[in-house]
Amino acid sequence: MSGSLSGKTPGGAAGGFLSFSALYLFIYYGFGAFSPLITQYYKAIHLTGTQIGMISAVAPIVSIIAQPMWGYICDRFQIRKTVLFGTLLASGLVGLMFSTVSTYAFVFVLYILLSFFQSAIIPISDSLALGYVKVNQLQFGDIRLWGAVGFALAAFLTGLLVERFGPSVLFYSYCLALITAMLFLMRLPVEVSESSRFTVSVFKGMKQLLRIPRFVLFLLASFCMFGAVNANNIWFSLYYQEIGGTVAGVGLAFLLFAGSEAPFMKLVGYFVRRWGLETTLLLAATFSAIRWFWYSSAPSTTAVLILFFIQGISVGFYLATAAQFVRENTPASLQVTALAVFFSVGSGLGTMLCNLLAGWIKDEFSTLAIYLFFGAVTTLGLIPLCVIKFGPWKQARQEQESGATL
User: Fold this and answer.
1) C-alpha angle with apex 204: 203 to 207, nearest 5 degrees?
2) What is the 8-class DSSP label of residue 298?
3) pLDDT for 14 beyond 70
4) What is the DSSP track for 326-379?
5) For 47-85, what is each residue's pLDDT tens digit?
6) CA distances from residue 92 to 143, 167, 289, 293 in whole angstroms, order as listed
7) Which end of the chain is more exposed for a tag (fewer CB within 10 A), N or C?
């Protein structure tokens, strides 16, 4: 039955591709409705800059704890689709609850709860999609680009709705998008990997992962790269208004930024085949550092919009290849755990640090100084990427993989 969580989708590979694409479209539509515009809600309920920074920082802390737990549950019991279904539903309902509160304490508690469920969504959906594209000999970027499309559309359309009806509308958009994503999740084909079960301890698994030099170096790089990228989603709204933009312009900017990721994700397969994963990742991180330093110089809003494609080169390339790098450099039995650890470090620890320091920098200096800080952090992330590319472990992947299976 196609509507069940374990049923096969009619249409074979083509049906699976469409279902995965729609899943990513609506998951990221929800995120695009929430993240870029949440500061408008914070302003509407009169939170201070310090309070905004604390809320933004506590969510990654929860993710650091929760993501390995979700990864262990999925790897141990092989119920990825079931867990993803439950966390999509819970995340949507918790998001809806934000529209009923207006005090810092309640927002703080709800954000912790939201982060607990939300932390499972990306690692599990990426794991499912990566397994699917491997079996069907497809490119992960061809599916992931629909996430960029969804994020871009949501930021623009929800921005218009927020300007007309108020910030509470973003929570309704978020909830509706995740519930719609659940419908397409139910249509995904059966996973080959779910026919076998692994009995792996989460602590043993993490210990095994941390013995892989390329994986550890990549964690350090992503700590810096994703920390700045995710923090930008929170602070860009205030930054854009500081350099002369409007709230409606924020939605347009995110439409262009996130929209530019899709074509570059489509192109990433060509770059990976021509230059390899390591070079593509290094190129993306370099462009990202340049972007943040440029933002700190207070360019005009027109220039920021005209050069929107820099996000496609930096974030689009990195997002489309990061999960692939993790998969190719970790044991098959620890795929979800590896992705969960990866997201915990990048989207967790990195984002926590960047948001905490960004809040302090804004109070002590300015929003422009936040982007100078983002540029410096991302530049530090180039160092482990260079070691991966040119260091002693650049050809060690095959040996590590074979050794991990012993």
Assistant:
1) 85
2) -
3) no
4) HHHTS-GGGHHHHHHHHHIIIIIIIHHHHHHHHHHHHHHS-HHHHHHHHHHHHH
5) 877 788 888 888 778 877 887 788 778 777 778 888 899
6) 22, 16, 33, 36
7) C
pLDDT band, residue 269 (cuts 50/70/90): confident
- The model's pTM is 0.70
DSSP single-letter state for residue 389: H
Q: Which domains, from first to last, does the chain contain?
A: 12-190+200-404 (1.20.1250.20)
Q: Cα 56 to chain center, whole Å?
A: 15
Number of C-beta neighbours around residue 254 at 10 A = 28
Residues 6 or more apart whose Cβ sits within 8 Å of residue 259: 148, 149, 152, 153, 308
* Overall residue count recorded for the chain in this entry: 406
User: Could you tell me which of 140, 120, 133, 180 has the C-alpha nearest to residue 16?
Assistant: 133
Q: Six-digit token pair at 218?
A: 């990549």
| Encoded amino acid at 108, one letter | F
